[in-house]
Amino acid sequence: MQQAQKKGLSKSALYAIIAVALILVVVAVYLLAPKGAGPAGPAAVAKPFHKQILYVIVNDEGTRINMYKTGVFDIAAVTPARWPDVNNTRVGNFTLHLVRRPDKPQLTIQYIGLNPMKEPLNIPEVRQALAYATPYDVILKQVFGGLYVRLYTIIPKGMSGYTEFGINKYEYDMAKAQQIISQLKAKGFDPGKYVITIIYNEGNTARQQIATLLQQSWSQLGFKVTVESYSWPKYLDLVDHFQYQVMLLGWIPDYFDPDDYLMPFVWGGAEFKDIEVHSNVAPGDVGKYLANVNMTVETEKFIVVAGEKGTGATYKGPTNKPIITVGYVVDWDTTKSNWAEPVNMVTLGTGGLKDVALSALCKAAQRIIDPTVREAVMQAAVIYFNKQATMLILGQQITGENYGSWVHGMYYPLATFARYDLVWEDPNAPVVDTGVLNIKNSPETMVIGDIGWPDTFDPAKSYESFGWEIFWHIYGKLVTMWKEDTEPIPELSVAWAFSKDMTDLYFVMRGNVKAYDPWNNKTYPITAVDALFSIWRAVRLNLPGGPQWMIDSYIDVNASSVLTESELDSIAKSQGLVTVYKGKSAEVHSLKELLDFFGYSGPTAGVVKFKLRFPYVPILQIFVTGVGSIIPMQYALGDKYQAALADSNNGRNPAAWAKYVGVGDTDATFKLLSTKPVSTGPYYVADYKEDSYILLKYNPYYWNATLWQELYGFKP
């Protein structure tokens, strides 16, 4: 979980001011499946194909905006406060388009963290008073320039588990805040004895403004409120170890599932030896599953009751809705260890609530397969967490459209990035010298004015949005998402299925896929061995601050393996497999049935089986992310490839690869891929200069290049 924090925090630091996703768009309504190779019909308008993508790093905003206004960039990072100045700027016969879309919420949130382990924030009424004394609307308007809208719960709109049922909607109400403090004073509480310190990372002007507004408002309650700023590394250290009273941060989810909000923020640090969920329990039968009742939460459609697993509980709560019971057996040794010196998002959620029943709801939601029951349990966690007021949610980001009007077909995905080979420009788009490598911004070149720099080019290490955007273009994954859809579809795999107990996940690999090594002008065939090696390697390297937790938390990579198609067929025939695709589910009893269900009849390249540590509903979403990028094992291992392949029995024993891949950043495969990435996607890294530019060119061996022919009449 620590890595999740690093990514979330890094992103928020990078985009707290630049609060607009720099993502572009798909042109045509085509599925990401191999297209027919026949010639495309005549197009009404010629659509130039982006043969290359150029990222130009310009950290000074004034310079970056001036370059945008002169047509050097097709899109550029612009702070929300500057949008009115830049919008509608004429560039030749076109204009710059920067428009807010409140009807299209994104998943980024901004929040205030209150530490309940520090006085006086350990008093719930104090937290509630601060919640009512927070000028939400002023912050959203003045600081975020209208690119955020109010949000009251930890799970944002657009995700399962979002609810407004039973939620305290904190709005700015100083009179109510002062009334709460007055009631505490009547009990002997003196706010004048307490100093409340708000911390933020220095250089972040948005958070500096928020801290100042909070200081002015909260001081009216009688507290002495101070503000402190720290360097980013020091700030992270303070946040990581809960050494703060109040902190300011934002969050972009790692993958599209509410678990990526519940576990980092809501989870109370408790671990369990067993969790058991029962639905549609009669009130008189609660005692058949629970030894006691420690939490009762009414949700939209259910009553969720949590307590220790056993028998004998007496239930006296509401009975107007069906009851779901969550019974648990606490692992007290691990739980007490987590609580002793808690680490934010690692051993305790950011909310700082050392709460067993709340933890049980979060852990149970990871394992529940029934979507209706799962949503109810998540809502119960959200409702309970909201009432504790340890995180004051400022707002949820909305879509900000930002591009030159010569760029067509814009779209904004919730959890991924747009593919720039699917974006096209007007044939008469401005042609302007970029000042980089003698490249002009022409209709065949997508140019982005950006800030920052990727951590590395190795998907086993990079855990930030810039790196993941690059990976979205240069690497294929087992599954992907199309346009603004949020359900995975096949990419380098062609079908998937689970064992009936949901602990084995099988991917059938697409045949005839090649990886391209531009540094040596070589290609490598991609098979199930490469898929398993790519995922296994991320866990094996265990690089600091990397995304490997997303794999290791849910998959035992050493117990995973490569199978042949005939072996999967035998498993399907003897045991049956279950699969879900495009909202439909099925039980299949042969490989042919599985492939038919996915509508695939082409060549295949083996099967990879992942052994799940427990049934985890959103596991497919993780394979969409940067850490799911597929690399060729032969490129990574070089002359050790054949020996590693033999020692692992062609991927049946991946643990044998530990002899060839080390731990940490001294590993040879990391040194190679962090600086010289290869390609299994539509583009490859052709050139780069750190903190200056990154040049991508189209991959001539891209497996789905026929798509370009259909869209643009372009054939590599």
UniProtKB/TrEMBL annotation:
Family, as annotated: Belongs to the bacterial solute-binding protein 5 family.
Domain (Solute-binding protein family) ranges: 48-266, 487-704
Nucleotidyltransferase as UniProt keyword: no
CDD domains, A to Z: PBP2_NikA_DppA_OppA_like (cd00995)
PANTHER family: OLIGOPEPTIDE-BINDING PROTEIN APPA (PTHR30290:SF9), PERIPLASMIC BINDING COMPONENT OF ABC TRANSPORTER (PTHR30290)
InterPro entries: SBP_5, SBP_5_dom
An example Gene Ontology biological process: peptide transport
Official protein name in the record: Extracellular solute-binding protein, family 5
Keyword DNA-binding: no
Sorted UniProt keywords: Membrane, Signal, Transmembrane, Transmembrane helix, Transport
Source species: Thermofilum pendens (strain DSM 2475 / Hrk 5)
Single GO term (MF): peptide transmembrane transporter activity
Transmembrane segments: 12-33
